[in-house]
Amino acid sequence: MTNETVLPEPAADSRPTTGTRTSPATGPAAGLRGRLGYLDNLRAALTVLVVAHHAAITYSNLPLWYYTEPRDNASATGFVIFLAVNQMYFMGFFFLISGLFVPGSVDRKGPWRFFRDRLIRLGIPLVGFWLLIRPLLAIGSWPEYRKAGLSPLAFFLAGSDPGPMWFVEVLLVLGLVYAIYRSVRGRSLDQQRSAVVPDARVGNRMIMLLIGVLTVVTYSWRLVVPSGTYWPIVGLPTPYYLPQYVFLFVVGLLAQRRGWFSALTVRQGWAGLVMALVAGVPALGFSTVHGPAYLASVFCEQVFAVGVIMALLVLFRTRINRTGAVSRFASGQAFAVYVIHPLVLVAVARLIAPLAAPGVVKFAVLVVIAVPVCWAAAYLLRRIPGVRRVL
């Protein structure tokens, strides 16, 4: 999500290093140069999906957002399906992309300078959200706290989880683990760079192995952390998806060395689409069952997630790979949008609250207004001296 974790300086990461043989089509250097198109565009598109996802919660009858409105059952059911489909893959996709350029950043900076920079670029927005944005989002409930005789401090501390910034929390932990790993491994930067695997291929067996491992680990994990679990202390809303987040982050780490993103074929992209279409309905339909049937549900979840990710990677790489002023602007503000979008969504939702319309109409109005406002606000925020350093 951040410029550092997803889009490092192209000169440092894209040039081949001594002793590394790369292929024009599939080598790591080619894949990193291609990022300036399709990964920028993909990153912006996924950020729009995050905004739409949280806009849908507003009208879903699920009390999982800072501001919600009760809606008719038909709209609410549609939103719940939309949310469930997104949840199966989109945050895992963010972790995959976030892991892609981490090895190159550690190559340039070393493990501990890398993590120090992560603390600045991720830690400051995390603390800023908790101190400034979170209380503003809860301001509508202040009259109830005051009526109950609670102090402003009690109001400030209530609901003190980081909200959507849980993603940043987890990225910080994963970055620390990787920094420790690279430090303990003790290899020089030249040795690390020479470990790049040229002419990579992504075989179908490799894909099925990933799905199989994800299924077994996720199923075992959910015996302890069942679906619907919420971790209030760290604010992690979906800890039952944690294996997918970690595994896809690791896949991103490996993909940087092996050029896997560039190696996916168009045929595999179409296969991913078929996988997603076939597995999507069973994954949703079996989600409430138990026993062996639940294992099948978890399997379908992972097939759907991997299939959608494959299809989108190939689609954006082959069809949506050009950059212009608009795409650079959209990608450049993406992390800032992620940080501030709850404030914009809640403000706009309250503004259009008097509108008498079905939930799906209000959702569309909210998204159409909030998306450009988010990007405009992010742009203005990043023009403040020093803000661009962390956003």
Q: What can be said about this structure in brief?
A:
This protein is 71% helix and 0% strand. The protein is mainly alpha-helical and 391 residues long.
Distance between the termini: 10 Å
Helix content: over 70%
Tally of domains: 1
Net shape? globular
Total of helices? 19
Radius of gyration: 21 Å
Residue fraction in strands: under 5%
| Strand-pairing-aware structural class | mainly alpha
What's the order of the H and E elements? HHHHHHHHHHHHHHHHHHH
Number of strands: 0
Roughly what is the average pLDDT, rounded to an integer?
Answer: 84
Low-confidence runs (pLDDT<50, min 5 residues)?
1-35
**Could you give a short account of the major beta sheet?**
none
Structure description:
The protein is mostly helical and 391 residues long. The chain has one domain. Helix content is 71%, strand content 0%. It contains 19 helices and no strands. α15 packs antiparallel against α16. It is globular, with a radius of gyration of 21 Å. The termini are close together.
